[in-house]
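Input.
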Amino acid sequence: MAAGIARVPFRKFVWYNFIPTLPKSLILILIGYYSGESYVKISSYLDYAAIGTVIAAVIFIVIYFMMRKVSKKYADRDIN
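Output.
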């Protein structure tokens, strides 16, 4: 939109957008290639991370409900 408002000629606009796109695309292709090569190893780490996250969430939920029960017990004691 900015190029259109500034009335940049279309050929100049395409050229200035094409030049930086080539190295960026090459870098992203290389990152994808080397990441894909080690996908199996990364996948096993992600499995462990997922299991750890689920365990941490369950522990957090249990602690939350225990603390809620304890705080409710003390709140009832303060009222009476």
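The chain is about 90% helix and 0% strand.
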